[in-house]
Amino acid sequence: MLALRLARGSRPLVQLRRLLVAAASAGSGFLLLYVLAEAAARPAGSFPQLLWALVPLAVTVQFAVAVARTDPATKPREGLDAAGLGPVRLTLVAAISTAVACALGSAVALAVFLHLRGNLAGLPFDGAGARLLHADQPLPVAAALTLLALLPAAASAATALALRPHPRPAPHTLLPWGIALTACGLASLATTGPGGIGRPAGWALTAVGLALAGPGLTYACGALVQAVRPGAIRLLAGRTLQEEAPRLGAPLGVLCAVGAGALSTVALGDRGGLQVPLGPLTAPAAALVVVCAVATLLTSAVEVHQSRTGTRETLAGLGAPGKVLRGAATLRATALAAVSLPLVWGVAQLTSLALTR
Known about the structure:
Layout: H1 2-8, H2 12-41, H3 46-70, H4 87-117, H5 128-132, H6 141-163, H7 171-191, H8 198-225, H9 232-267, H10 282-307, H11 309-317, H12 322-355
């Protein structure tokens, strides 16, 4: 009840972010239901479809966690400890709010899915949706509810793990693990053929590897910015990048993985692209992944911007001109782009070579 009251009393921008989480959850839930309908009609080869459908689910969970981190209701405030709302209770509130938003999206996905199959009221679009969703086959109710409950459960658990008080590992300690997982993912793509579980597993390892390497790369980028006699702007930009590395690195790494996948699809266009077995929902699923990855990075940037409020006020009190802060922000964005774009291109080239072996 407290989580619902805090959600209802939030600002419009916060509510909009929660609605975006619900929309992304609806898209992922609809995709899972489509895979279930395909499996009921054609059981052979349904497992790789489910693995590919988990990719939008994973980026949706990441987006939901990023939105929960920027929610003002999860921030410690004066007087809340006395009311029994310490860090643990606030984490529980955030997990419940995230579960509610994702459950709302899953409910919308189920309603739209059943409507397109003609199970609610009539057949829209002249029955095209019924044919696509195999309305002639019975839908396993228990399996459908289990798949729809997967996203709210995963998102709430990930939110609780992300917001719990714990020391963050140093960014540079994750870089070797990220490089190793990326290499394992590329090796899996090179040694397995299309249609099996090797392709989605390889992409998953590559994305996780880039997400782990992201904080270390962001930290190293900050060190390079302030190297060799830095001025005030370079020093401010470099130190800020190093402080932001744990929060911006992982979303940046996932976005690099998505960009590499897009470039690989373009490069392999004459060979059928990445051969994702999701049928007519392949393009919507890819669009959902791109939108969630971009939205996660932007939401993490909002979180970082909120955490720098005290620093900006201190610099303004010391008489620092506004152009210093704007110049540091521009330098940070330029440095991240200068590192990310070659990384995306390199991973895309290696991926294309692995898939053409």
